[in-house]
Amino acid sequence: MPRRAHDPRVLVDSSTLDDAGVFALGRGTALVQTVDFFTPVVDDPVAFGRIAAANSLSDVYAMGGRPLTALGIVAFPDDRLPMEVLGRILRGGDRAMREAGVAIVGGHSVRDPELKFGYSVTGIVDPRRMLTNAGARPGDRLVLTKPLGTGILSTALKRGLLDRALTAKLVRSMAALNRAASEAAMAMRAHAATDVTGFGFLGHASQVADASGVTFRVRPAADWLLPRVREFARDGVKPGGLGRNREFYSPRIDEGGAAADLLDALYDPQTSGGMLIAVPARRAPALVVALRRARVPAIAVGEVVKRGRPAVEVVAG
The domain containing residue 94 runs over which residues? Predict the structure, then answer.
């Protein structure tokens, strides 16, 4: 993006690779704005709509904001797919937005050979309490709120390799809103947060570490991952974005001799992943309790230390 003169009302822009932009309105209120859309990751149109909506909302939740309105974005091959498919996608998105208490106020559609769907979402946040990539501090604990591996499992689904039970588990994970995770992080006065999406766990973790001037020390374990993720990775079932993530982010990562299939899961591009939260150590146990009471996964993944050479240090078990 071209550089431009700084507007003091812009509190967060692309310079810290945050999840959304933030614009001050005054009197303790700021706008949070984001946009996200992508091609289908599951076969069921309603599920795809729900997942796309949850994914779009996550950027606002990751800033500690409350989403208010959404505009739909549709690219649709009407010469190849019946309009009924689009109607089901929109119904799925509407269900997720209703669950979030968000009003869909319009949108835009174009004809396109490849189906794509998502939303532009606007919310509000208290600028004195918002969560950004730049707030993590040495001594913080790191908590992840959804297991990893959606990219690998979605690839397996496209190849007809997932059974019905695991497909349902994958869809539930991606369709789940990050609202409760965001509310818990705000209640525990977390220092920083991001949602783990297309750049994978290690990509997003390195972005927060770089913006905060710290190093994340993480200790991967089995409960970080959805079922069969490492098995599929060993069999070469991987999305194309995984290799691109590794190529771009690996110079910032100390991989610590971790197994190749585990590293695949850590670089795996996620769709509608959970939040990665940096919280003061004394409040970390209370955050875990609050998340579990809200039926949100609470996975302790490591801690924040003073900046070393890597942005992220992987400690292999």
Answer: 10-125
CA distance linking residue 60 with residue 58, whole number of Å: 5
* Alpha-carbon span 133 to 18, nearest angstrom: 6
267 vs 146: CA distance, rounded Å: 15
State how far the Cα of 247 lies from the Cα of 40, in Å rounded to an integer: 25
What is the distance between the terminal CA atoms of the chain, rounded to a whole angstrom? 41
Q: For the chain of 317 residues, list the mean pLDDT of each consecutive stretch of 10.
A: 81 87 94 96 97 97 97 97 97 98 98 98 96 96 98 97 97 98 97 96 98 97 95 97 97 96 97 98 97 96 97 92
- The CA–CA distances, whole Å, from 122 to 49, 56, 91 equal 18, 10, 20
Show Cβ contacts of residue 126 under 8 Å, excluding neighbours closer than 6 positions: 28, 29, 30, 64
Hey, which residues does 302 pair with through a beta bridge? 142, 218
The residue among 125, 160, 192 that closes a domain is 125
The total domain count for the chain is 2
pTM above 0.85, yes or no: yes
Distance CA 278, CA 182 (A): 12
Residue 151 covered by a domain: yes
Does some domain include residue 1? Answer: no
Q: How far apart are CA 208 and CA 38, in angstroms?
A: 24
Q: Is 69 exposed, middle or buried (0-12, 13-18, 19+ CB in 10 A)?
A: middle
| Nearest C-alpha neighbor of 162 from the set 226, 80, 218 | 226
Q: What are phi and psi for residue 27, nearest 5 degrees? A: 55, 40
Tell whether 106 and 149 lie within a shared domain.
no
State how far the Cα of 23 lies from the Cα of 7, in Å rounded to an integer. 9
β-pairing verdict for 312-314 and 253-254? parallel
